[in-house]
Design a protein that fits this description.
Elements (H helix, E strand, L loop, with lengths): L2 H16 L16 E6 L22 H14 L6 E4 L12 H9 L2 E4 L3 H8 L6 E3 L7 H12 L2 E3 L4 H6 L4 E4 L9 H12 L7 E7 L10 H6 L3 E3 L8 H12 L6 E7 L5 H9 L4 E3 L7 H4 L28 E7 L18 E4 L4 H4 L1 H10 L4 E4 L16 H15 L3 E4 L16 H10 L5 E4 L8 E3 L2 E5 L2 E3 L5 H14 L5 E7 L5 H9 L6 E2 L2 H10 L23
Parallel strand pairs: 1-2, 1-3, 4-5, 4-6, 7-8, 7-9, 9-10, 11-12, 11-19, 11-20, 12-13, 14-15, 15-17, 18-19
Antiparallel strand pairs: 16-17
């Protein structure tokens, strides 16, 4: 691609993202509504198998009711942001809980509460053309029902909710009770494919994975309905030969620009297996299955006059000089919404938050809330559109992902790139190094960023070119590692790396509290300087005391033995 063509492509892509939609569609931003409905769901995600009291919760499972309300949200929000689900405080994306108040105070949204399913159906039932029924005894029937509901524009109920649906004038459009008794998952999903795939989106597909068994956390069900998406939890585990073959078939039939929303099933495969498979088709995933209110958040852009700003300390052209000391950079990954943002200690020390560029598309108001609430010590890290493993992405699909990333990063005022590759190679977790061709692709695809960071657990890929450093994590701070042990680990790392300056990049698992991290930092023998990521990368590039290294190339330029990779 010639530079002038790339520039035009970036401008066109960014303009398309910023242009007002002719009508509201999830994933396309517009103005906030003046009024909207607030619908609470219960803190109980268990399936009621029978009419008897559930032994696990000591009460009836509330999944059916919650699922009906989230699916109803998808119907009501298909062409406008009308309904916001109020999730319990225990919901995985707990940092999003203050967002409903932010919509009211910052955007002027006036909420009307619909506190019961009866009230929700009375106000919103007209968005449904009928109802579909899933089978309590066959869990995958829920995903078939969600697929059917998106295509048929139907409410999603179990048998206990049929009277409520019919009370509000809705008629049955599909009933899956008994339809799949005794069938395997692959048989059920192949039936759904034959019945509904022709009418499903090729831009979106939903993986309703996560917890398994007698529970489900269907936060992305509203997106499934609004997008007319096919819903499944097919395995990416090679031992499930039929499921993985059908999985591959679905991926090949999606558009190259398609989004995979949701998460893999914890009962079937691993995160590494799933993302390796999806990345192999150049596709990007947005997690989790518990991602809340996607249809509402993605249709509302930044408030009028707001421009996203980061706490930038340096620019691409800045000149800095590293001193002979230890520099530590603390990075919390796994995006915003599920970490330590709401803790009172935030702002006490330089802290770096991995956001990704997708906040500009899927939750702009949440990013505005975080940006307005940031302290001078909070810094937002960007990088790649969606979750993918670069080593698995076909070479011809990688430039397009970089075009998306480069177009979105300015909207988020992001200037550093986070990379993670855990392409499944049949080896234990913890191997996150990049082959040289991937490093080359990032340097070629993002020449304007300050630098790159790589890994999740500790990795060993390092580079510096044209003032841009690529640094890997030296340490993974597990939330279960005792404070004294973590402090001793970092002290030992400093002893093992005696040359100064030494640049220590630490991945802070999001379940760690900031108070705990501060305690570890205060306990170190050699007192390092804590710095934000943009400064850290410029310092590293100014005096690179590390060796250039890749997964497949030694520091001396010779290839590694295949057995050591």
């Amino acid at each position: 691609m010639k530079p002038i063509f790339k520039a035009i492509t970036l401008v066109t892509f960014a303009a398309a993202l910023c242009a007002p939609a002719l009508h509201a569609v999830p994933g396309n931003r517009g103005p906030a509504p003046k009024e909207a409905y607030l619908v609470p769901v219960k803190d109980n995600w268990e399936i009621t198998i029978s009419d008897k009291v559930s032994p696990n919760f000591g009460k009836e499972g509330a999944l059916a009711e919650n699922l009906m309300l989230i699916a109803l949200q998808g119907l009501a929000n298909t062409d406008a942001p009308r309904v916001y689900i109020e999730y319990p405080e225990t919901w995985h994306f707990h940092d999003f809980n203050p967002l409903k108040a932010f919509y009211a105070t910052r955007y002027g949204v006036k909420w009307t509460r619909l506190d019961t399913p009866e009230a929700a159906l009375a106000a919103l039932g007209h968005f449904a053309k009928g109802y579909v029924v899933w089978d309590r005894k066959v869990r995958p029937s829920i995903n078939v029902a969600l697929t059917a509901a998106g295509v048929l524009r139907a409410l999603v109920v179990d048998e206990s909710l049929i009277p409520l649906a019919e009370k509000h004038g809705l008629k049955p459009l599909a009933d899956f009770r008994g339809q799949f008794t005794g069938q395997t998952d692959i048989q059920i999903y192949q039936w759904a494919y034959a019945k509904y795939w022709k009418d499903c989106s090729r831009d979106y597909i939903i993986w309703m994975g996560g917890v398994a068994g007698n529970s489900m956390e269907p936060g992305v069900a509203d997106l499934a309905i609004a997008f007319h998406a096919f819903v499944t939890d097919l395995s990416a585990n090679p031992k499930h030969k039929e499921e993985i073959a059908f999985h591959r078939q679905l991926l090949t039939e999606l558009k190259p620009s398609a989004w995979i929303m949701g998460w893999h099933s914890y009962a079937k495969d691993t995160e590494g297996q799933w993302i390796t498979l999806t990345s192999g088709y150049g596709l990007k995933a947005i997690g989790l299955n518990s991602f809340p209110n996607g249809t509402f958040m993605s249709q509302i852009g930044f408030s009028p006059g707001f421009r996203m700003t980061n706490n930038n300390h340096v620019t691409r052209e800045s000149v800095v000089h590293a001193e002979k000391k230890v520099y530590v950079c603390l990075v919390q990954s796994d995006s915003m919404g599920i970490g330590a943002w709401t803790e009172p200690e935030r702002g006490s020390i330089p802290y770096n938050w991995e956001v990704g560029v997708d906040g500009a598309k899927w939750y702009p108001a949440a990013m505005e809330m975080f940006a307005k609430d940031k302290s001078p010590n909070d810094y937002f890290i960007g990088g790649q559109s969606g979750y993918m493993y670069p080593a698995a992405v076909p070479a011809d699909r990688f430039p397009g992902l970089m075009v998306e990333m480069n177009a979105l990063m300015p909207l988020m005022d992001q200037h550093t790139v986070g990379i993670m590759d855990h392409t499944d190679r049949g080896i234990p977790i913890g191997y996150f190094d990049l082959p040289k061709r991937c490093v080359d692709e990032y340097y070629a695809g993002a020449p304007g960023v300050i630098g790159f960071i790589n890994g999740y657990a500790a990795a060993h890929t390092f580079d510096v070119r044209n003032g841009q450093a690529l640094m890997s994590y030296d340490y993974y701070l597990d939330e279960h590692r005792p404070v004294a042990s973590a402090t001793a680990d970092l002290d030992e790392l400093m002893r093992l790396n005696p040359v100064r300056p030494y640049y220590m990049l630490v991945h802070v698992r999001e379940s760690n509290s900031i108070k705990r991290v501060i305690s570890i930092m205060n306990g170190l023998e050699e007192k390092p300087e804590l710095v934000p990521l943009d400064t850290f990368l410029k310092l590293a590039a100014s005096n690179p005391t590390f060796k250039v290294r890749y997964k497949d190339v030694k520091p001396d330029g010779k290839p590694w033995d295949a057995q050591t990779q």
